[in-house]
What we know:
By secondary structure, the chain is of the alpha/beta class. Helix content is 45%, strand content 12%.
Amino acid sequence: MALRHFGAAAAFALTVGLSASPALAVTEIQWWHAMTGANNDVIVKLANDFNAAQSDYKVIPTYKGNYADTMNAGIAAFRAGNAPHIMQVFEVGTATMMAATGAVKPVYKLMAETGEKFDPKAYLPAITGYYSTSKGEMLSFPFNSSSTVMWVNLDELKKANVAIPKTWPEVFDAAKKLKAAGHATCGFSNSWVTWVNLEQLSAWHNVPLSTKANGLDGFDTVLSFNGPLQVKHLENLVELQKDKTYDYAGRTNTGEGRFTSGECPLYLTSSAFFGNVKAQAKFAFTAVPMPYYPDVKGAPQNSIIGGASLWIMGGKSAEEYKGVAKFLTFLSDTDRQVYIHKSSGYLPITKAAYEKAKAEGFYKDQPYLETPLLELTNKEPTENSRGLRLGNMVQLRDVWAEEIEQALAGKKTAKQALDSAVERGNTMLRQFEKTAVK
């Protein structure tokens, strides 16, 4: 994608006119999103509640397909000059959106220009850091955030007389016992192979994935995830794959059913898997923090987020921006954040909402819903654990996964695979750097 064209397209964005008569003028705010099912219901309710709370603005939510589809639709809309006001973009699209200078309106500028009360310190730093500049200026508005957790089939662990593991060596030992107890095809597994086994692994152990604070401090970042920790971890997975103590479950989350079916009793994936687990699992379950290697000094550090944020598009009128800003203020309300958290399983984005959920005893019966928050806030984020911001991230993940698959298939050593993933990835980053608007 030529980001020069994407960024320049914002200059041709048309101001949306008011379709109603002047006496009944309502400014419409278009919100494109990627939520389905129960989460789509939450989006619709938020829009309806905002529209009912005032009469000057009307938020119109529109489903545009999955995350990649929604982002591609937004880019096409810029080129056509009819972009939405608000676009939900998954976290790995952050660098692409940042590079489109002029095509987006940074949230911190929007709130300052419209005079809306806005305190970036009110938000959880482990979440906002991903979407902020190195100075702490919020570029996009965190909306649905999650993190990696380990889902545990409590019934199967009890049958095998296995305690819930906390470290990676304990996971490997537990998985062997579970395999011997009847889980012949899968002692443990994971979805999102690069997110779990490279991105989160590195942050959780406070080692760099890439230079320049994993790209947060500049597009001229260089990948570095072929270090001792990452190589050792992949070597362990390769060895355990041989007899299916570990069994690879794919690049995305299509393998998550292996946990809810009971096949894989230990499974690392997003905390946002909660809804499906609650609806489908016929066994007692919980979610616990990601395992860590105890010989790594200072581990565990803190996890990084998944999910998406709301980007405000460029080229709109002052009145439209005023409505967008009021909507973001509306979304930040403590009670509203608690509602979103309880309804969707996604994380509250403000400190006040998290504290209120705790005070209400929300986590007493469902402690696993607090697990990702405890991970994200485990320690103050470092240069290695604030998040990551790499160009062409979707394509990068495919390359990394391809190399990991080569290692798991015995076609390359773990070191060869990660060296190749780094080399190929750096070539892609240099290509992105050339096309990105400075």
